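Lab channel / #folding
Pinned by the channel admin:
"Please post every new chain as: sequence first, then the structure tokens as a reply. Keep commentary short and put observations after the output so the thread stays searchable."

First post following the new format, from NK:
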Amino acid sequence: MKRYYHDAFLLGLYALLTQIHLSVARGISAQSELRCWLRQKGTLGLIEQILCSARSKRHKQKIPLIKSLYYNLRGKNYLTESEWILLIKHLQFMRDFIVHGEVNEDALINSRLEICYFSLKIWHRLNVNYLAKRLANHVEHFNESEYHAHFSVRQITSVITGWAVLKDNEIF
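Reply from TO:
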């Protein structure tokens, strides 16, 4: 069964998953610093919000018939029930990693690869303009380059909801 979601939620979820898998890829050998960085950037709070919304189904969207036909033909704005369950499982694993500490490195790598797979799946199903997708690709992460502009997950979602405007690689 397909569950349809709002654009801002899917874009924020994509940015969060990208932030997690890029951070884990760059910080696999420095797990304690990675956990501190993820806590400092508020990733734990975002994961908790997604896990709570999964229980309450808050971001689930009811769509009219015409829009559902469009989404079905284009393959946009949805996650299947089995994909959602697997995604929640990996987000719970990442939450446990951030909160409790050291985990098996192989399990962390496998979880990172699954999260990367889900982020790519969500990227293809986003129904937003290409600029918003590119902005989400520049999410801040652990050991990021200082030569590029990086944005937080909250800044990225504020652009799509209309609370902020992007001009010349800066968010106003």
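NK: Strands lie at 2-4, 78-80, 166-167, 170-171.
TO: also worth noting, Helices lie at 7-26, 31-40, 43-56, 65-74, 81-100, 105-125, 130-137, 153-161.
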